[in-house]
Write a structure and sequence with these properties.
This protein is α+β, with helices and mostly antiparallel strands. The protein is built from six helices and 18 strands. Helix 1 runs antiparallel to helix 5. The protein is flat. The two termini are about 40 Å apart.
């Protein structure tokens, strides 16, 4: 029993010693540890977040919360209610019964990603005077009138991104039919909301950052099964651009590329740069292909198409600059950082750290300290603390 108590006591002593030594080690080297994790910052790739908001079909807006019944879509005199209506990052819409009539409409995507090879095109910076003020200053030499002029300074950068969207149909055998009308998605609009997300960071923080999509052009259409493309009609086509709108429904179109660039040298119109934008993909005709004989379906193929878009985005930073009259306005471009800039700065910081002899000496001292501490912990754990007490007592007597 006494031996067991001694063993537990020795074990507790070793654990306390380990915790104390480890705590001292961390405190002594905290500066090096914290510095090694504070190099630069990361900026994301995403400038516009595409959210699949709704589908307009037969005069009705289908969303996650509005499923019908659609009075304009009747089968056998019955208004149909959607059996599936999933939206946001993807679409899964079945506007009628789950195992009959129209097949499910699906849409999936790759998020809009920055094209690192393109870099950016910078316009500006430019300044616009927004006001002035006069202040009376009194000191030992007298009273003076000091005039301060206020300017809004702008810089506009254009980035190129890529976005992929896959639209396809899928369904059960009960949704296969030889009827030339019953299984077609006709005059259907897929509406996507584009929400600006902060992804570009200016070196000196601006008062405001504005985002606006300048152009969204379809660079390619790839069909999963080319044998049934003659039954499909979709917009946009290769080489055409999506219309960009301020609201769902397409009543108010966004300013064009040239309109946005016309703001160089003048103050920005806040109505041009909004918190959301809208685009649509139109399915004029989108249908499966079924075959058979004597009115019986023997097989069917569902269409799938991948649209690749090139997206141009304008990012504008606005700064407030106050100058005492007589000072010279210095307009230097405001540097922005994206992922490659961060990666380059990280590599430079790494190389700088290892080229500094004081850092190497510090790491060497840290390594020797760590080895010594580990050695002491191992010896104490296996041989107890008697040898350490004898060693310290011997040094004290000497």
């Amino acid at each position: 029993m006494n031996a067991e108590k001694l063993f537990k006591q020795a074990t507790r002593d070793k654990r306390k010693l380990f915790v104390i030594v480890l705590g001292v080690l961390i405190i002594l080297n905290w500066n090096r540890i914290s510095t090694s994790f504070s190099i630069g910052y990361i900026s994301g790739f995403q400038g516009l977040q595409p959210e699949f908001n709704s589908v307009y079909f037969k005069g009705y807006w289908y969303t996650a919360s509005t499923r019908g019944p659609n009075e304009n879509y009747r089968i056998g005199g019955v208004s149909q209610t959607a059996s599936a209506a999933e939206f946001f990052d993807h679409i899964n819409l079945d506007p009628d019964e789950s195992d009959r009539y129209l097949p499910n409409l699906h849409v999936q995507q790759n998020y809009i990603a920055l094209d690192e090879d393109y870099g950016k095109v910078t316009y500006g910076p430019w300044s616009v005077k927004t006001g002035e003020s006069t202040e009376t200053v009194t000191n030992a030499t007298g009273t003076y009138q000091v005039m301060t002029e206020t300017y809004s300074q702008f810089q506009m950068d254009k980035y190129r991104c890529e976005w992929q969207v896959n639209v396809y149909l899928d369904g059960t055998w009960g949704e296969a039919t030889l009827d030339p009308i019953a299984h077609k998605w006709l005059d259907t609009e897929i509406w996507v909301k584009l929400v600006p997300k902060a992804w570009v960071y200016f070196a000196d923080n601006p008062d405001q950052v504005f985002f606006a999509p300048a152009k969204i052009q379809c660079s390619s259409l790839e069909w999963g099964d080319s044998s049934i493309t003659q039954y499909q009609s979709i917009e946009p086509t290769t080489g055409s651009s999506l219309g960009i709108f301020y609201a769902r429904g397409g009543s108010d179109e966004v300013a064009s590329d040239s309109d946005l660039l016309s703001y160089q040298g003048v103050s920005l119109d806040p109505d041009i740069f909004r918190s959301e934008y809208w685009v649509r993909i139109s399915l004029n005709q989108f249908q499966p292909y079924a075959w058979g004989y004597l009115g019986q379906v023997q097989g069917q193929k569902f269409p799938s198409v991948t649209l690749t878009f090139t997206v141009y985005i304008f990012v504008v930073g606005e700064w407030t600059v106050k100058l005492t009259k007589g000072e010279t306005v210095s307009l230097t471009p405001h540097e922005t950082q994206t992922f490659l800039d961060w990666l380059s700065s990280l590599v430079d910081a790494w190389n700088t750290f290892w080229s500094n002899p004081f850092n190497l000496a510090g790491l060497g001292a840290f390594g020797i300290t760590a080895i010594a501490v580990v050695a002491v912990i191992v010896l104490v754990f296996f041989f107890g603390t008697g040898w350490l007490k004898r060693l310290l007592w011997r040094e004290r007597r000497q």
